Amino acid sequence: SSVLEEIAKDRVLKDFYVHAVMTCYFSLFGVDNMVPSPGHILRVYSGVLPWSLALDWLTEKPELFQLALKAFRYTLKLMIDKASLGPIEDFKELTNCLEEYETDWYIGLVSDEKWKEAILQEKPYLFSLGYDPNMGVYTGRVLTLQELLIQVGKLNAEAVKGQWANLSWELLYATNDDEERYSIQAHPLLLRNLTVQAADPPLGYPIYSSKPLHIHL
Fold it and tell me: Cβ contacts of residue 127 below 8 Å, gap of 6+?
């Protein structure tokens, strides 16, 4: 707010900022005073803008173009949030929302390289806009970083050797050549499926297999 007060006191600087902001606005929305369609919003969100003199001026300044595109995406996300959560109370709340978008969110496209970077940086939230041609609807996608619980265990070596010994008895001595042999094949605590497959053939399954070899006799 203090910066805005300083700009407001300098008329020349204020006019410069107004001119720059309005040129960016016309590049995104056009000069016609029309309500943008959902298709237009999606195209602008994706960075595909209709040609205009203002667009030529903006694209010559890549950094400013990216800032204008980011401002548009933040505005769209803010509109969606406030449509469900209620309007903004004051300037401080608006600042807090934008700061949260900047630090905790990546708002862009799934196909962007920065989307991958945001995942590697472990951004808490990701947001993208899209269109489903099969359903004919516009979609918003939100991904949230969460903790994933996994189970870690350790098998006793004797338990594995015992299973392999049982395989020897069942296959070689009981002559059970059924592919679905082993009466307790699926055992979650002993990880029986994994240990059975890890045994050396013919008890288990080979890790790899080659192409058929043709031998002339």
Answer: 77, 105, 106, 107, 108, 140, 141, 142, 143
